């Protein structure tokens, strides 16, 4: 199974849906449908940026970036969350206000219904795949706890985007039906406003999580406790004074350990102990790529 299968499925679905929505919105003069087209186009761009971030984060460390390029993924994930608001949310809100000020009589919604049905099929299928993939990571945790503790933004960004897409389609579908049924042209603008607000809320949530990762999150308390046990089990160690950690990428953690060694050790004994402790930590926690151990008092 391709590791980025969820992103590629969402990318293909959103690109196809965006084209269909724009064509339908142009022919039926539906502002809500055009807003949904913008939404799908933004989601398509977001998936491309996520793939770019993943690719850049895999670059090997060099003289310019001695700790690697892992944070590229966190940077581009933050950009994606901003784009959802800056383009998707703001344009939808602008179109909604414009349509409320200058309402357009509703056209025959037949083709809009066809487009909505196709969009539900594609976006719904992409959401199901995203849910299945995220459940593998979630385990027994609650959904929000799993998102908050996740160090891989690609896993929950697609989940949030697809959820917002499906909810947006539901809103547009309901308002489209009511607008045609009641012959009320204002409901199309209301639908655009609701979609814009929905995208804004999703953007804020994603920006919050992506920013936290970009600023540098450390390993969990339980993991710190286990590492402390591994280090203090070595016969040369008296006590672990402090553990500092930060995720460089979802698969790479940098550790800085301040350790008090026993007083009767010489330099060679401490050097051997450091190598031995590093190997023991990496065996238990392969994601600990960078381990710096400093003697302290």
UniProtKB/TrEMBL annotation:
Protein's name in the database: Cation diffusion facilitator family transporter
Topology in membrane: Multi-pass membrane protein
InterPro entries, per database record: Cation_efflux (IPR002524), Cation_efflux_TM (IPR058533), Cation_efflux_TMD_sf (IPR027469), SLC30A9 (IPR040177)
Cell compartments where the protein resides: Membrane
Segments traversing the membrane: 7-27, 73-98, 110-134, 155-178, 190-207
A single GO BP: zinc ion transport
Source species of the chain: Chitinophaga silvisoli
Keywords assigned by UniProt, alphabetized: Membrane, Transmembrane, Transmembrane helix, Transport
Keyword Coiled coil included in the entry's annotation: no
Occurrences of domain Cation efflux protein transmembrane (ranges): 8-215
Stored SUPFAM superfamilies: Cation efflux protein transmembrane domain-like (SSF161111)
Molecular function (Gene Ontology), one example: monoatomic cation transmembrane transporter activity
Domain of life: Bacteria
GO cellular component, one term: membrane
Predominant place of localization: membrane
